[in-house]
Design brief:
single chain, seven-stranded parallel beta sheet, three-stranded mixed beta sheet, 14 strands, 41% helix, 18% strand, binds UDP-4-deoxy-4-formamido-beta-L-arabinopyranose
Amino acid sequence: MKTIFITGGAGYIGSHTAVELLESGYKIIVADNFYNSNINSIENIKKITGKDFNFYEIDICNKAELQKVFKDNEIDAVIHFAGYKAVGESVANPLMYYRNNIDSTLSLLEVMQEFDCKKLVFSSSATVYGEPEKLPLDENCRLMTTNPYGSTKLYIEGILKDLYTSNNEWGISILRYFNPVGAHKSGLIGESPNGIPNNLMPYIVKVANKEISHLNIFGNDYSTKDGTGVRDYIHVIDLAKGHVKSLDKLFRDESCLDVFNLGTGNGYSVLELVNTFIKVNNVEIPYQIVERRPGDIAECYADPSNAKENLKWKAELSLEDMCKDAWHYIKKN
Ligand code: WQD
């Protein structure tokens, strides 16, 4: 049975991936510093799966703490989620983002090398495409970032490519996420950002739950189907399953450097998401149209054919499932 070390495993995507890995027969080790999560996720992963695992509350910038994890456990591969991920915060505080996201990755890679663990799945983002060169986006499209958060992802992808060039014993899978939303069917784990959410779905959920009075829709004058922004929303369970498939491939191949877009291939507008949420959950979402948000792009959705062909993976869950599960989570918590 292979053992997978998950950095940031108490987070939104990390915790859902932990569940899918355990249910697929992997053993896991989890590390998190709870910057953007809490201990409840760890307990709920165990509750959902009925399985136990070692958890380390550490900062993965700290090499000594990382070395202890690798000394304590026989680790076969790593999935690296840990990192700051708020676009607006990264614009206000770029040095904090570069220091944390890049430093922690370098520490992790050095310790992996030291312990001869050379299989890595890296959590990247469609944000590395910036203003799409064309749609749908495939993995060979132009890369350009428009904020420090996106740049940390792009620079780390470059570090991984250089590492593979220097030593092709490595097996590396770079996963570019589109817009993850939804929650586990149990309602025990999900997305619960503290304070005012930056992203659309957690904001909609708080408006539906009457925690916030109304939704501001950032512009309806884009050249899209209804003027509002279009994105490729993907259920977090589908995204988690994509990680399991990418790990399976790393263990099948001796070594590789892969890049996969993990999206559904469907673009939905803000208004389509709002109206779907209202319909499936029978709630109200008061909204007003306001100015565009600086830095936003009009439209972004994936060509997921590479993952379909080479990971034997494709997203199965619908926009209705995403809305239902996101609402079920907030009502349960
Ligand atoms: C989606 C759409 C907004 C909030 C970001 C990051 C990206 C990734 C996913 C980490 C856009 C509109 C939003 C609101 C709105 N994160 N919107 N009112 O910007 O596509 O991507 O999250 O990897 O890196 O950039 O997601 O959910 O913020 O916005 O109208 O209150 O909803 O304009 O069209 P985005 P989002």
